[in-house]
Amino acid sequence: MAFGDADDAAGGDGPVKVELKHTERALDVAAVRYDRAGDQHYDVASAFIKSIRGSDVDAALHYLARMLEAGEDPRFVARRIVISAAEDVGMADPTALQTAVAAAQAVQLIGMPEGRIILAEAVVHLATAPKSNAAYMGINQAIADVRAGMGNGIPAHLRDSHYPGSKQLGHGLGYKYAHDAPHAVATQQYPPDDLVGKDYYRPTGNGAERDIAVRLERLRRIVRGK
Length: 226
Description:
The protein is mostly helical. It folds into two domains: about 40-130, Zinc Finger, Delta Prime, domain 3, CATH 1.20.272.10; about 150-225, Orthogonal Bundle (post-AAA+ oligomerization domain-like). It contains nine helices and no strands. The longest helix has 16 residues, at about 75-90.
């Protein structure tokens, strides 16, 4: 018979079917529906990261709580936070990565349950920070070009000139030591010939990248001699 109420449970002669809702009622606590080895593990982790990326701090804290209450390894959570700091916050707030790495180290140092406080602080920092994926997109494009066979060779003046015979090959000749130039920025070719003028990093106007964008424009103009 199905478990209905106290009278049924006490008076029935047949087997008693105890379901999750009955256990929850008896314990006066909701069971966390979360399988660390199944879909819920990935679904909750995905919702957690997407809430941080979407700047919904309250949802992010909810999913953090669900993972921790389900017994998720806090080191797994910390690793996801570190990745999010670099991928989703990026240079819009460079201190976010510092917070995330410090949180990951602190959680390993003190463990749980106090580690939840540290993870929560990191989540709040990331979720409320300005966002930029410009650095993430930049390295992806650079890797794509390398895989496509672009970027052959290295300008001779940038090559190592310390080993015997290197100077006879022209290595290092004409190299401009940046610190000797005004503001320590010299006009000089750094990328391979086929990548001259290629912009990988395109800062947004969010957070700290507003100032970076202005400085980067000046740096590229000087370095490229424009």
